[in-house]
Amino acid sequence: MSECLVLGELSDLRLESKRDDPGVVARPPDRGEALSKGQQMFCPNCSREFPTIKAITLHLNSQSTCWPHEECLHQFPVPPGLRGSQSSKPSTTTGYCHPHSGYVFGVGKNLFDRLQDDQYNYRREINMYYPFHDEGEWELAKFLVENLTQAQIDKFLKLKWFHTRPKPSFTSKKQLLDWTDALPSFVPWKVSNLEFTGYKTTYPVQLILRNALEVVKQLFSDPVFANHITFQPHVVNTGSQREYGDYMSANMAWKIQDYLPVGATQVPIILGSNKTPVTRITGGLEMHPLFITIGNIDSEVHSKATLRAWCCIAYMPVISKNVSPVTMATQDNFGDGILYPPHTGKHTLQLIHGIAKEIDPWDLDKFQKAAKAAHLSGVHMPYWLDWLFSCPSVFLTGEVLHTLHKFFADHPLKWIKEIVGKPELDTRFIIQHKQVGTHHFTKGIMHVNQMTGCAAPPRFVRAIRALIDFIYYAQNPVHSPESLQSMVQALSDFHAFKDAIIEAKARRGKKGAKEDFFIPKLELLQSFRGTIERLGTLMQFSANMTECLLITHCKDLFARTSRRVNDFMEQCIRILNRQESMELFNLYALITSHGASLINAISLEDEEVTTVNPALSWVSRILPDEAYSVHGPQRVLPVAHRYSHQIRTR
């Protein structure tokens, strides 16, 4: 993307459903359908009026188009699944994009262009690092704000060192922080105090948030991601096998595109959230942030915490799970190996509607109790109420960290310990041969004489082996119908042999051996194939990223506050806002001070070793001598290229 493109408008998918009938869903408008009376649609270039969006598109694409020919050609980055096919080596990979997606209707300002609209830009035409004296003083200021507390900054500025040497322009921590707060920023934070009749709290309940749509626009227009962003749904085939990678290569992206106006571009939203304690031992303070990124950005990029592909948009107030969130299965159905019908949004709305007929939804106490009895959260107007395709059974995706890894630690690992014994299990890890990339346990190896290999019944071993195979298949960075079938077969094999776990009395609870598999995470595994076919591979939705962001956006931030209960959250967002402004300004100043273009040109190079850090990749091309200034991941082998062959032939 050679510049930020103003792409075709997304059609309004907030359909007007009848509020008294939650089962009614309106029909989306046809792409060529005339606009309702009173509505107007104008060409973005010549302002001529047209009756439909399709008519505008035909006008822009005609030989007599009003759009200058030299501006009609725009280079798009190659989708991740097709990048290997751009090399000179023979390849069986083919693909095609949705024919009515990603049209260019105009050229707008990218994120760095908008920085030039800042109120102090006229001063930066003289001194790029204003309000700081020069680049050196800016680096000192950035270091102090990022690494020292406010008390430590004041102490530093009062050192006797400065009695005989020049002081920086800022003379106090207050002046330094005021100057950093004056750096360009885009999406301000807001604080809302929440009060509920009948619910008393020790401290005020605060919702701290910022406009999520503006944050999405900021991510979409960031030139750093120009070579790592996808605008069009596409299909990738290797030989006769379809490949599923990021969201845009899966079925749902293509399906949604069919309902959008001709030329529109999807911006899929990915949200991540979790709560975490920020005090140690005592205090009991928790923070519950909400993070956002867009599915257009390559998953290899937004899976790295240091690459600015995720933004925090809210800190939510922190004040029994017996049903599946994605299927109609209840606790008694968990672990039976059957894929139940999806728990659709329509079904949830029908339950809410039924309760609302009997109880006023605004009578929170009574409505909450009735909702909990029906296994509902108690929210009577869910945000997805009238959004087409926004079904919880679809957008609540499978998640690798908790659904697979934590599930394995909480259940299969405990079964193995029961049947094999902890000493025997440790010994088996100890005697493994060393292998690069695999952790090796070295203690106690001299005490091992021999291994029998018969510590567990064969059917028990086959059940555990099948479950481990499933976990590995589910983590494939690229899937095909063959790999999906292998994944499903592995789960089927587990259910075929799982009775051996019960017979060995390996599944145990507080009261002894258990005779069931009522495990919610085990039931969720049934939905993995459908999720991958609809939305792409599961690794792009892993909570590993959220866990990393909890450290940088909660625990590390809290340590830099005064830790007062009544306002530590507001201190956190001020620190976070400074960090984001400084990171953005630092790269902008680096590029501008050297006279380089703020447009990140598309690179069609396809190297076996690629730069996973978009900012480093950009700076390395235009300012190779300044590449050391960019921090974060350096050079790695691309995951999809590294494993795709083994996955297809496994």
UniProtKB/TrEMBL annotation:
This is C2H2-type domain-containing protein. InterPro entries: Plavaka (IPR041078). It comes from Suillus plorans. Pfam families: Plavaka.
